[in-house]
Design a protein that fits this description.
The protein has 88 residues and is mostly beta strands. The chain has no helices and 8 strands. The strands form 2 sheets. A 5-stranded antiparallel beta sheet has the order 4-3-2-7-8, with no helix packed on it. The radius of gyration is 13 Å and the shape is globular. The two termini are 12 Å apart. This is JAM3 protein. One of its GO terms (molecular function) is protein homodimerization activity. Pfam families: V-set (PF07686).
């Protein structure tokens, strides 16, 4: 599955991008400090700097995924989007 976090425009040359998984009220890192975390390290990757691709998805991947972008040189320094993923 591919989840996309589109950055329309930014003056920050290298904005910080993080992906988090929120399930049952608990938040865990998926992509942090420019690397995959936990079990995502072996089955996920970032494409084009902003799209999260999760391979071999299971029902345990059903969650809300949050993409957070921090662009310190921009007027709006941080933004986020939540994507609900449901694996049947």
């Amino acid at each position: 599955v591919e989840l996309s976090c589109i950055i329309k425009s930014t003056v920050t040359t290298n904005p910080r991008i993080e992906w988090k998984k929120i399930r049952d009220g608990e938040t865990s890192y998926v992509f942090f400090d420019n690397k995959m975390q936990g079990d995502f390290a072996t089955r996920a990757e970032i494409l084009s700097r902003t799209s999260l691709v999760i391979k071999n998805t299971t029902r345990m991947d059903t969650a809300t995924y949050r993409c957070e972008v921090a662009a310190h040189s921009d007027t709006k320094t941080i933004d986020e989007i939540n994507i609900q993923l449901t694996v049947q």
